[in-house]
Design a protein that fits this description.
The chain is α+β, with helices and mostly antiparallel strands and 223 residues long. The protein has two domains: 2-80, Glutaredoxin, CATH 3.40.30; 93-213, Glutathione S-transferase Yfyf (Class Pi), Chain A, domain 2. 51% of the residues lie in helices and 8% in strands. It has ten helices and four strands. The longest helix has 25 residues, at 93-117. The model has no long low-confidence stretch (mean pLDDT 94).
Length: 223
């Protein structure tokens, strides 16, 4: 099973991390993996391009199936290994509905994070405006307030007490927020969620190695 799987990944990338958490939760040990460097542009290497023509990480193959999109890979692994490891899709229709909703809300969250964190990389210097960056910061603040509301409950996970596919897909994004300096005091519910799951076995085992040895940033401390 796992020996037929190959993952090319980059440290700190939420999409890569999602697949690694998923593999841990489904007890798929011993898969082929290779850590590549974004800084050295190794994600544009022939090895990656042969699996992922977009030149992005992750590049993931399970047997003959190539699943480079993290959501696709996680759905595939859950469906193929339903009876193995953690069951990540709840039986309750209500819980399923909430799980799917939260999973896909990670897209606007990630997009708004990116517009703030990578503004200076994505926008040419002559086109940068403080007013535009401020609008992006305000949009991210509004988004984070939504998530604060979602997580104001006594349970540790996004869908009640059970760890689900929603947590596999959303937790790496939340961890990325705090790595980038998000203020725990300003966002106590997000901080509680982060702290309640960061020591989960699957998350701890797949924690980005570069995060152990390098400091985060304070880019989001004023958000």
């Amino acid at each position: 099973m796992a020996k037929d799987m190959t993952l090319l990944w980059g440290s700190g990338s939420p999409p890569c991390w999602r697949i690694m958490i998923m593999l841990e939760e489904k007890q798929l040990k011993g898969y082929n993996q290779k850590l590549l460097s974004f800084e050295k542009m190794e994600h544009k290497s022939k090895e990656v391009m042969d699996m992922n023509p977009r030149g992005q990480l992750p590049a993931f193959k399970a047997g003959k199936h190539v699943l480079n999109e993290s959501y696709a890979a996680c759905f595939f692994l859950e469906n193929q290994y339903k009876s193995q490891g953690t069951k990540l899709i709840p039986d309750s229709v209500d819980a399923q509905a909430l799980m799917y909703q939260r999973m896909f809300e990670a897209f606007p969250l990630g997009e708004k994070i990116g517009k703030v964190l990578y503004y200076n990389y994505m926008v040419p210097e002559e086109e940068r405006h403080d007013a535009a960056l401020q609008r992006y910061k305000e949009a991210l603040t509004a988004e984070l307030q939504l998530w604060e509301g979602y997580l104001k409950n006594p349970d540790c996970c996004l869908v009640g007490k059970e760890f689900t596919l929603a947590d596999v897909l959303v937790f790496p994004v939340v961890a990325y927020l705090f790595r980038a300096g998000l203020c725990s005091e300003r966002y106590p519910a997000l901080a509680k969620y982060y702290n309640s799951l960061k020591d989960r076995a699957s998350i701890k085992a797949s924690w980005p190695p570069t995060w152990h040895t390098t400091p985060g940033s304070d880019t989001l401390k004023t958000i």
